[in-house]
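pls design
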């Protein structure tokens, strides 16, 4: 029987936002891998998983989640993590990997699956979708992501604020991920594009330290790395105006 590696999206932080299918996948797996930084601190994925499976079923694997400058160090960490998970797959029929958000949206799981596929030929890779930060922020803030024929653009600000500016000057709603360290530049881009009104940002969604606020309150101070911004589309013409 082929071993299975299952990427399970566990949402942005609130354990109640894990889907029923996600919970079932976590509980059915022989072991559940959670990514941790080399500092060893518990991440959101692990904290969420602990609501549904016992601690002795969890395997913590170090990933270079906080390494963005030293590519060699990052690649070495990826290789080591891949070897660790591959070893688990050789001993178990089913290994789940818990990732915040969705496993197919800017997820650590993507790179892990590519590595493991080469190390364990014949293994099967599956994913269970999860609630994303933009969906959670939209729900908590009341921001509408799309109406009618509007497009939706998702931008990681780690790609540079130029990419964000281009998106803001286009049509539709713009969502920015990982913008905390460039909060000042993001605020300036919103003002320059005339998209500040109605824009919202949030961090630590579903956690005790949650913050959901108007983008007009951005004062240039650095925010948590995993902050999310929603700049809704310009909407005119009343109800159904974009149909």
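designed seq:
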């Amino acid at each position: 029987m082929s071993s299975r590696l299952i990427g399970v999206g566990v949402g942005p932080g609130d354990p109640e936002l894990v889907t029923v299918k996600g919970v079932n996948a976590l509980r059915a797996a022989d072991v559940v891998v959670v990514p941790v930084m080399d500092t060893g601190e518990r991440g959101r994925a692990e904290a969420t998983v602990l609501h549904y499976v016992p601690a002795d079923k969890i395997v913590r694997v170090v990933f270079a989640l906080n390494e963005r400058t030293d590519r060699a160090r990052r690649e070495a960490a990826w290789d080591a993590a891949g070897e660790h998970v591959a070893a688990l797959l050789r001993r178990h029929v089913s290994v789940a990997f818990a990732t915040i958000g969705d496993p197919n949206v800017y997820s650590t799981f993507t790179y892990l699956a590519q590595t493991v596929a080469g190390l364990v030929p014949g293994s099967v890779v599956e994913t269970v979708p999860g609630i994303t930060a933009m969906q959670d922020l939209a729900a908590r803030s009341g921001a509408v992501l799309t109406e009618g024929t509007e497009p939706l653009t998702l931008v990681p600000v780690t790609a540079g604020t130029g990419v964000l500016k281009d998106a803001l000057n286009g049509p539709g709603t713009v969502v920015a991920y990982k913008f905390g360290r460039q909060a000042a530049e993001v605020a300036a881009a919103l003002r320059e594009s005339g998209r500040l009104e109605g824009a919202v940002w949030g961090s630590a969604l579903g956690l005790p330290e949650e913050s959901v606020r108007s983008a007009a309150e951005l004062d240039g101070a650095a925010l948590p790395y995993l902050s999310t911004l929603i700049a809704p589309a310009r909407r005119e013409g009343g109800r159904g105006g974009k149909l």
